[in-house]
Amino acid sequence: MSIKRVTFSLLRDLFVEAVGRGNLTAQSSLANHISALDDFISDMGWDWSHEVGQLLRTQHERLRDAHGERLAARGKSESYVKNRLSLLNKWFRFLQSLDYEGASITGDLNPFQQVLRPLLVGWGNLSRTAREIGVAARTLLSWSKDGRIPRAAHLPSVERLEQLRGLTPGSLLNQIPRRRKAPPPTAENPHAIPHRKKLAARLKFLYRLRPHQIPENHRLRVEMHALVRHKVEGKSSNNIRRSRGKVLSRALRSTGEKSWRTRELRAHWKTEESMAKRWPEILDGLWVPTANRAWNALLSFLGWAMIAEGEGGAGLNLEALTLGLLADQDHLFRYLDWYMEASGQTHGGHLYFFDTVLMLLHPKDGFLPKQASIGATLGYDEAAWPAQCAATLNWIYLEILPMLKENYEKDGRARKPFEPIQRILDLDRPLDAMMRAINRAEEDRYTTGGQHEVSWARDLALMALMTSNPLRILNFIDLTYRSDNTGQLRQMGDGNWRIVITKGLFKNMRGAAKEHDYDQGVDPSMTPYITRYIRTYRPLIGDLRSELVFVSTDHPNQEFDKLDVVVRNWTEKYVENCQGIGPHAVRHIVATHIIKTTLGNFFLASMALHDNPITVKRNYAQFLPHYADRGRFESYNGSTQLLKGVAPRSRVITASP
Predict the structure, then answer these.
(1) Do residues 610 and 550 share a domain?
(2) Claim to verify: residue 405 and residue 552 sit in the same structural domain
(3) Domain membership of residue 399 as a residue range
């Protein structure tokens, strides 16, 4: 709707209609709200037919405070004035929500954009402004151009922008709907996660090479495409067997069973911009997910190679880069030394890098020994190159891996996956935290329709579904629904929901998922959230890709690649004492809840995760002694009740002399 020319009378009527919906206000307090606005209008010399204009928008705070001063001057008590101003704030927020709704429909600038955009004109480079306030340039651009709303963590940056431009405090912050208090600085935050703090410090030095920085005619592109083809069409080597990042075995084993799998390329990845970033993981129009992980490990090494020697790097230029450098023991050792010093300890990243190098150097089915042309660029002839690869592989096997294992066992894990959710896992019933969060989200409902309410319903349905069926995020991104029940999300005759996914669509399709398809019901308590979204809100987003369950309101015609960001933002906002967690942490919460409440039933937990019971038992072994004992003792309970106990002694027994 267009709300620009709204009068106070129309605003009142809309407010009355909205009472009782969401967290606007209760029917019993409606009269007080209308009375407060009536006093404000009269005090300003207006009437109900007067247009609101900017009076309850950009001028609201100034006029509200002036009204409060006049109320106090008339002898009104401090509590009365405070209550009246609080009611006026509710009118301001209600009008603001109407403005946002109207902007989402008409494409006009939302209230935050209207104030922000003039601040960015004539102040030079946007990137410089972004650096000054402590956000990424693309984040600031998304606020200004796309109308994105700053998250709670970005509120200090918004406040800094107000200060840089000499604005009255709150000029920008007050234009953010339902503004939450920003979290305290990390140094003082009791819930700060040490690993995230260390990672943020490391990311200030962006040495890593980016795919788009490599020219199209560069030999690295040729080599990487050849590697991906080699892995897709051939087989891979299991060089190191690891459990939770720890090296368990040094045996070099060529299984001849595995190769990198391919998946259909998402349509929106075919743009020039996307292809420039994703070219290492695309082969013949297909997506190769494993290539992305391997390539990321190599990009860090290649980026280090371009750092000046005086700063610890190899001092090479872009033209000198080749995958053949991975057979150079000197480069590998210097990189490891630099990498470990930068990290402060040994972690899984070091292990995975050398796991990837060993895969490339494998004497039987490795990529590099077969590439005589790569060896030639480094001065090796056809016979010497395989020998160099073998020598480097043996060096890693005999010297580097034992050192990494020793350091890893001494340092422990750099990233503790349970740390961000430890407070939740420590509960007797960890899922209670998620249920309370769902309740908070339900109470936080948008009352004015538009994209904000659609996104609210979508996110709530996602978290309800994820809490019931903790699949990996890629399965939720690809999740489909069709009215004829041929999609993966299906509604049964009783109105409840079920998820059916073929085993070939799982990450662990060669592991636990290879035995059977996923076919599990959704907890009936989650049915209302899912049904409401599917029936009422999902049709409002668009029907170009109507089979996708979860899509972005900005790009409804494609898969929602940033769905993990939705999970992190939602949990930060609604889960108590939480800095935001990813989808995999929800899997941990569900598995821990099942193990605790079933007294050690790891098989049931593995069914929920669609994983191997042995893997689940290993990952959650810390719960085994306590809850397994409790479960075992309770299972004995019915039988042990038959025991009559130890009979009392009938006489005193003395030892024989």
Answers:
(1) yes
(2) no
(3) 211-411
Of the candidates 253, 254, 244, 251, the residue with the CA atom closest to the CA atom of residue 352: 244
Query: What does the block give as tokens for 337?
Result: 């030394």
Going by C-alpha positions, the residue among 292, 293, 290, 313 that lies closest to residue 303 is 313
Q: How many residues are recorded in the chain?
A: 657
> Which tokens go with 97?
């929500």
Amino acid at 626: H
pLDDT in tens, 509-566: 555 556 678 899 999 999 999 999 999 999 988 777 889 999 988 788 888 888 989 9
Tokens of 515: 């035995």
Q: How far apart (Å, rounded) are the C-alpha atoms in residues 259 and 133?
A: 46
DSSP 212: G
Phi and psi of 263, rounded to 5°? -135, 165
Neighbours of 31 (CB within 10 A): 9
pLDDT for 215-267, tens place per residue? 888 999 999 999 999 988 875 544 444 433 343 333 333 333 457 888 887 77
Q: Are 567 and 488 members of one domain?
A: yes
- How far is the C-alpha of 605 from the C-alpha of 613, rounded, in Å? 8
The answer to whether residues 426 and 322 belong to one domain is: no
Q: In this structure, how many other beta carbons lie within 10 angstroms of the beta carbon of residue 388?
A: 19
User: What is the CA 354 to chain-centroid distance, rounded?
Assistant: 27
Q: How many domains does the chain have?
A: 4
Residue 629 half-sphere exposure, CB side, CA atoms within 13 Å? 4
414, two tokens: 């750099």
Tell me which amino acid residue 562 is: K
- Cα separation, 554 vs 562, in Å, equals 12
Same domain, 151 and 98: no
| Parallel/antiparallel/unpaired status of strands 497-501 and 489-491 | antiparallel
263 and 322 part of one domain: yes
Is the model's pTM score more than 0.85?
Answer: no
Q: How many CA atoms lie within 13 A of 407 on its CB side?
A: 19
Residue 366 belongs to some domain of the structure: yes
Tokens found for residue 544: 């170009």
Residues 632 and 485 in one domain: yes
Strands (E), 167-245: 241-243
- Are residue 124 and residue 258 in the same domain, yes or no? no
Among 387, 411, 435, give the residue marking a domain's end.
411
Among 89, 108, 127, which residue terminates a domain? 108
Answer whether 527's CB lies under 8 Å from 497's CB.
yes
